[in-house]
User: Which sequence fits this backbone?
């Protein structure tokens, strides 16, 4: 009796293989590894006991999705119940490649499951020789089924990706950090380049973006006049600095510069200015995206720090799964492992150090406030991840709690209880969610009304177009009838005139159409006259013959 069966999930369907001499195979594992590559040896080890082909591509996708998620599909359950041997002293062992689906099969069907070891080697051989083990299945058909199912599976995973909204935040925060580095290096290049001509400007203006704007506007320092003082004040937002720039330009130690060099410096500084403006736009986009995706986390710790936490975790879902201790040191992994290796002090904070709370706390309270802040960040991220309607009510309440804890560390004033704060937050969040739902319903109603109006307008326009067409058709029919009547009347009037012309034999001055008709009538009349003359001749000939016969 075969005691081991192996389940193999293929793109074409489910296959159940019976393994012969399971104890011998378990003892001789190296021989199994060698026999996998040879089809003849491998076919003597296993035998196909049942095969369930998928009926459609949609059914195959549903079954594979269930297997990947560790859920037993109804088709798989029916297949195993009908084909696995039941009864006997020993239970049949089912070999499965994935331990997750094996655990669910053990719970639902009460089977003994085996994974790894011999089962993994057997499944490797089955995967290699599957098209030869199943009758009627070619290698080309199996590869086509795998390709089609792989495309549909990956397309479904991309379409229904739970982290797809987080990708924009991750990319924007990465681009924001890269822009900060690039703008810093480019502005330093502008400072060095323009510093040869106007070195005193570096000491007066410290901000990189304002320096690039001034370098673009001033150009040649010798051409700087008092008329440009107002424009300099608009850039620097300081009249004292503007006057200092004007005074230093008159007594500058810088070298003279050619117009071509000035053109290059101005073009490069304009590029840096455009990059700084784009950076501001990107930050505004990041703030709006964070308010949509993770409003509570953004309200608690800020948009930039919250986006960095999401980016470092990989997604908002991953961040929500992390415990508070992991969130506390997220971003300080190197320091943590170095401390564990050298048996030193572990880091107290990671990325959350950039929040304002830790900077405001005293040195002895930095570790305590970072631990408390990490706890609140995990709560906020879980609310954002699993709530249906995103609101920032919980984030505001959690921020107030952190503020109260800071005040408690400094002054000793006791903060409010967490239970009372959360009750208030739940009431406010339900009210805000109800308002948001009402607004969404109103928008949907307005959209439906607009669509109805558009459809009505289109239907009325089509009706208006059809009416003139019908009227034109009726008018054309009436016109055709009138024309036919007129032609009949003309023909009736012309017939007696033609008869008169033929009888009298006199040509009268008539139009071209009447002449044509007369010609046709004359042509038709000529054969009739010829027929009459022939009949008269025949009668005469008959009479002559009769007379001759009588005379004889």
Assistant:
């Amino acid at each position: 009796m075969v005691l081991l069966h192996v389940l193999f999930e293929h793109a074409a369907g489910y296959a159940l293989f019976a393994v012969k001499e399971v104890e011998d195979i378990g003892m001789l594992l190296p021989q199994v590894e060698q026999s996998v590559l040879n089809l003849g040896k491998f076919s003597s080890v296993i035998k196909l006991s049942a095969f369930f082909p998928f009926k459609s591509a949609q059914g195959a996708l549903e079954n594979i999705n269930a297997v990947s998620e560790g859920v037993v599909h109804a088709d798989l359950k029916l297949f195993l119940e009908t084909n696995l041997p039941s009864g006997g002293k020993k239970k049949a062992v089912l070999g499965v490649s994935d331990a997750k689906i094996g655990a669910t099969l053990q719970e639902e069907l009460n089977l003994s499951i085996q994974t790894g070891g011999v089962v993994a080697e057997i499944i490797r051989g089955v995967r290699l020789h599957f098209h030869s083990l199943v009758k009627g299945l070619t290698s080309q058909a199996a590869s086509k089924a795998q390709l089609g199912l792989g495309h549909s599976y990956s397309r479904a995973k991309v379409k229904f990706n739970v982290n797809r909204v987080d990708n924009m935040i991750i990319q924007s925060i990465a681009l924001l950090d890269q822009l900060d580095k690039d703008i810093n290096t480019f502005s330093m290049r502008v400072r060095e380049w323009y510093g040869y001509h106007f070195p005193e400007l570096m000491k007066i203006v410290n901000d990189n973006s304002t320096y690039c704007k001034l370098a673009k506007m001033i150009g040649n320092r010798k051409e700087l006049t008092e008329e440009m003082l107002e424009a300099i004040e608009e850039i620097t937002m300081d009249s004292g600095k503007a006057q200092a720039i004007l005074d230093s330009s008159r007594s500058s130690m810088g070298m003279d510069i050619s117009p071509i060099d000035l053109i290059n410096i101005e073009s490069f500084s304009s590029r840096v200015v455009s990059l700084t403006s784009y950076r501001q736009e990107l930050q505004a986009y990041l703030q709006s995206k964070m308010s949509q995706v993770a409003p509570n986390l953004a309200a608690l710790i800020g948009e930039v720090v919250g986006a960095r936490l999401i980016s470092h975790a990989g997604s908002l879902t991953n961040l929500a799964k992390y415990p508070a201790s992991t969130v506390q040191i997220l971003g300080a992994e190197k320091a943590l492992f170095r401390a564990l290796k050298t048996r030193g002090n572990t880091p107290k904070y990671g990325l959350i150090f950039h929040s304002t709370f830790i900077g405001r706390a005293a040195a002895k309270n930095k570790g305590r406030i970072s631990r408390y802040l990490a706890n609140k960040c995990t709560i906020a991220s879980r609310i954002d991840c699993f709530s249906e309607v995103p609101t920032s009510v919980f984030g505001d309440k959690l921020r107030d709690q952190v503020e109260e804890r800071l005040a408690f560390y400094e002054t000793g004033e006791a903060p409010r209880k967490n239970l009372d704060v959360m009750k208030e937050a739940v009431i406010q969040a339900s009210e805000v969610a109800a308002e948001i739902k009402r607004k969404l319903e109103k928008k949907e109603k307005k959209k439906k009304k607009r669509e109805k109006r558009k459809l009505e307008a289109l239907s009325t326009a089509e009706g208006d177009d059809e009416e003139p067409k019908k009227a034109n058709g009726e008018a054309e029919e009436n016109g055709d009838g009138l024309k036919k009547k007129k032609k009949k009347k003309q023909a009736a009037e012309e017939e007696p005139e033609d008869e008169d012309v033929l009888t009298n034999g006199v040509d009268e001055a008539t139009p071209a159409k009447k002449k044509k008709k007369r010609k046709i009538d004359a042509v038709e009349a000529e054969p009739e006259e010829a027929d009459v003359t022939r009949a008269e001749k025949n009668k005469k000939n008959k009479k002559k013959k009769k007379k001759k016969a009588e005379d004889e």
In short: The first helix runs from residue 22 to 27. The CA atoms of residues 487 and 493 lie 10 Å apart. The domain at 294-433 is CATH 1.10.246.90 (Serum Albumin; Chain A, Domain 1).
